[in-house]
Amino acid sequence: MNTAEAIDALLPQTQCTKCGFAGCRPYAEAIAAGEAPINRCPPGGVEGIGRLARLLGRPALPLDPACGTEQPRRIAWIDPAACIGCTKCIQACPVDAIIGAQKRMHTVIDALCTGCDLCVAPCPVDCIEMRVPDTAQPWRDEDARAARSRHEARRERLARRRAEHEERLSRAVIEAALRRARERAAARNGERR
Predict the structure, then answer these.
(1) Helices then strands (H, E): number in the chain?
(2) According to the CATH classification, is domain 3-67 in 1.10.15.40?
(3) pTM score of the predicted model
(4) pLDDT (tens digit, 9 = 90+) per residue, 114-126?
(5) How far does Cα 183 stand from its chain's mean position?
(6) Backbone angles phi, psi at 78, to 5 degrees
(7) 10-residue block means of pLDDT along the chain (193 residues)?
(8) What CA–CA distances, in Å, run from 191 to 8, 147, 183, 186?
(9) At the topology level of CATH, where does 75-131 sit?
(10) Fold match, 3-67 / 75-131
(11) What residue ranges do the domains of the chain occupy?
């Protein structure tokens, strides 16, 4: 396991981007490259900073307040009476913890929600709030591994869809060019007669 992988394994995998990076893996790579300090992960908090400090043989630093504050684990809650089914929350969720369909109410699968807050801002009707669940369980390493797996599966699925979309567009462009070429050839043949 290289250093970036070892660091990534210690991060909470909320994929919240509060550290200033696009997710836990990019943050881990920046720490490993010496481009980011170890104290930019609010979900990992003091314990996470301590784990990173021990791994890397560095002093533990206080959490960088520019990244946010350490909080108890929270999960997203969608008000069913206010949800308009726009799917913006589904698109924003980095771990596929929100389900629903276009123009239908959405809901959060509590056990899968990492508490990243990324679904809150894009909601056009402000029907999502972050709540500390009544049965709040601490975020464990196995939760982080499962969240990482869902995040990677989502990233791969979206990349596959983009590639398929680009291939369809490419084919459509080629077919349109061939159609125009045939039309021009037919027009030239018609003029010669």
Answers:
(1) 5, 4
(2) yes
(3) 0.81
(4) 999 999 999 999 9
(5) 46
(6) -110, 125
(7) 92 96 97 97 95 96 96 93 95 95 89 95 97 81 92 93 89 86 82 65
(8) 68, 65, 12, 9
(9) Alpha-Beta Plaits (3.30.70)
(10) no
(11) 3-67, 75-131
